[in-house]
Amino acid sequence: MQRKDFLKTLGATGVGMSVNWTEPFANLKLVDDDTPPSCVLIPSETAGPFPLDLTENNFFFRQDVREDEEGVPLKVKMKILGDDNCGPMPNVRVNIWHCSKDGLYSGYNTGGNPGQSGETYLRGYQYADANGEVEFTTILPGWYNGRICHIHFQVYVSSTYAAISQLTFPIDTKNDIYAANSDLYTKGDDPLNFNTDNIFSDGVEFQLATLTPAEDGEGYESYLEVTIQGTGTTATSNIEKETAKVMKLGQNYPNPYIDQTTIPLTMVQSSYVSVNLWDLSGKMVATLMNEEYLSSGEHAIQVNPSTYDISGASYVYEVIARNSNGIFKTSKMMTVMNGNN
User: Fold this and answer.
1) Which of 12, 43, 143, 187 has the most CB atoms in a 10 Å sphere around its CB?
2) In angstroms, rounded to a whole number, what is the distance separating the alpha carbons of residues 59 and 7?
């Protein structure tokens, strides 16, 4: 199977073409360790002015979105949770995009954004792991007239529900980084504050990401917990409903795992089944099953990292079922831990 076909499969199962952008966003408000967290809904934000449909380009399924863009390295981590129980939402698709250090967006050529048509930098998507987390490698965005420094993100749950918002950073910390790297951020301090920005002027508490020096000394790290509508499970799209007539793919257990995990698979219809493992750059790293005939009923697929020479990381496991009714595909995320974790 080709990488582009796998990515199309993820695009189909992760998001459909009919998306409801009016659904509100929520964010997790943490309290002390002995008290359950309280999920607080916040309004969704505009996708513009420069959204692109990332499903149009296969290579947007990537963790490192920098390409050749210069800037202070930034690791952006988000944790996606459901508002009903504040539990993690695995397998949802998260897109991010933002401007360059000079305030330009890839993919557009307009008066205020010249010469960027055909460019693809600083855009990408990932799937949330077992903890509901995604992480991107990027740069600290710059700013442009009328907007404070920010990152756009979209969380796709199904073809009928997707959430969209923006995050920003503490102003003093961000401007200190600009000043310390004035050779890169030649426009200087961001002149706006939250009150003068037309997106964040109604409140920024639940969209304010952390911005701290990276533990490895390479740039900075950012973290934001985002709550969307749900109870820790994804909604079901029309495509998923059709797939469910053929098979039902469960979450591997245990997950995360070190040396052994089991993928539960229920075949509703007997089919020839293939199971492939993909890393987060979109590279197939292992074939767990290849066109094996499975009768209807319960099946358990065993995975041992040492057998397939895979290291500690998150992976997407994809199941393809072929029978007289067609070819059906579905996928989920699993996380392998190193033995010393």
Assistant:
1) 143
2) 8
